[in-house]
């Protein structure tokens, strides 16, 4: 009985030391007042105002006051901009994607950094229809403000996130135009507990096996 209980405790400790869940945070941009520019050879850059945010499973979006979203892609890799051969952009530098504003429910504040990060490979920009350009990015990784996580009911100690960014732009490039809208969806995952729990779990599991073996030989 003792060996069985020890083994059960060991398994529980091992399981609780593993990542248990992931949640998503969506930054949604209306594009009001936003703009983009690209000279045809360097990075694509854009700014977008009018942001809202929502957490995992939430039906409600929360307005971000004094919001601004700015990004710069990595260097231009080639392409002619249409669907069959979209413009491609490389990895960006750190701090190349920044969202600032007030943590809800504040209606005014001195803006703080709510998210900052970079594109691993920003992906492609191609023409979807006349005058409408779609920018699709992969592996956007960075850090979320703990106060924003607390407001959304998420663990404030898990600030690292990985996500996807999509933006719709009006105009034609190389050149400039307005931002129609877009979203940054990032995923926050729980990290493993301290390694001491893992070691304790392994130790207890080994101890329980040894105890069972001794019981077997004494029977």
Name a few traits of the molecule:
single chain; 219 residues; alpha+beta; 13 strands
| Strand line-up across the major sheet | 2-3-6-9-10-11-12-13
Describe the main β-sheet briefly: 8 strands, antiparallel, barrel
Q: Low-confidence parts lasting 5 or more residues at pLDDT below 50?
A: 5-19, 195-205, 207-211
Backbone shape: globular
**Rg calc:** 24 Å
For the record, give the distance between the C-alpha atoms at the N and C termini, rounded to a whole number. Answer: 14 Å
Structural class: alpha+beta
For this structure, the quaternary state is single chain
Strand content: 35-45%
Order of helices and strands: HEEEEEEEEEEEHEEH
Average per-residue pLDDT, rounded, comes to 81
According to DSSP, the number of beta strands is: 13
Tell me what you see in this structure:
The protein is an alpha+beta fold and 219 residues long. It has one domain. It has helices at 2-16, 146-151, 195-218, and strands at 22-29, 35-38, 45-48, 51-54, 62-64, 68-72, 76-78, 87-89, 97-101, 112-129, 132-144, 160-171, 175-189. It has an 8-stranded antiparallel barrel with strand order 2-3-6-9-10-11-12-13. A hairpin with an 8-residue loop joins strand 7 (76-78) and strand 8. Helix 1 runs antiparallel to helix 3 (195-218). It is globular and about 45 Å long. Mean pLDDT is 81; it is low at 5-19, 195-205 and 207-211.
Secondary structure elements and pairings:
Layout (H helix, E strand, L loop, with lengths): L1 H15 L5 E8 L5 E4 L6 E4 L2 E4 L7 E3 L3 E5 L3 E3 L8 E3 L7 E5 L10 E18 L2 E13 L1 H6 L8 E12 L3 E15 L5 H24 L1
Antiparallel strand pairs: 1-4, 1-13, 2-3, 2-13, 3-6, 4-5, 6-9, 7-8, 8-10, 9-10, 10-11, 11-12, 12-13
Helix pairs in contact: 1-3
């Amino acid at each position: 009985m003792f060996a069985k209980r020890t083994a059960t405790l060991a398994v529980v400790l091992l399981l609780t030391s593993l990542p248990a869940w992931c949640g998503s945070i969506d930054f949604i941009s209306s594009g009001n007042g936003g703009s983009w520019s690209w000279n045809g050879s360097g990075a694509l850059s854009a700014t977008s105002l009018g942001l809202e945010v929502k957490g995992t499973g939430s039906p409600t979006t929360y307005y971000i006051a004094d919001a601004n979203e700015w990004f710069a892609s990595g260097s231009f890799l080639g392409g002619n901009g249409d669907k069959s051969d979209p413009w491609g952009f490389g990895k960006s530098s750190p701090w190349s994607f920044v969202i600032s504003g007030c943590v809800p429910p504040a209606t005014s504040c001195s803006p703080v950094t709510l998210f900052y990060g970079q594109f691993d490979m920003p992906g492609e920009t191609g023409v979807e229809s006349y005058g409408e350009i779609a920018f699709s990015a992969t592996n956007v990784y960075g850090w979320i403000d703990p106060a924003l996580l607390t407001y959304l009911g998420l663990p404030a100690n898990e600030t690292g996130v990985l996500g996807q960014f999509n933006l719709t732009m009006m105009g034609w490039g190389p050149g400039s135009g307005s931002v129609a809208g877009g979203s940054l969806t990032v995923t926050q995952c729980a990290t493993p507990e301290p390694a001491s729990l893992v070691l304790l779990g392994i130790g207890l599991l080994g101890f329980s096996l040894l105890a069972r073996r001794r019981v077997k030989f004494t029977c």
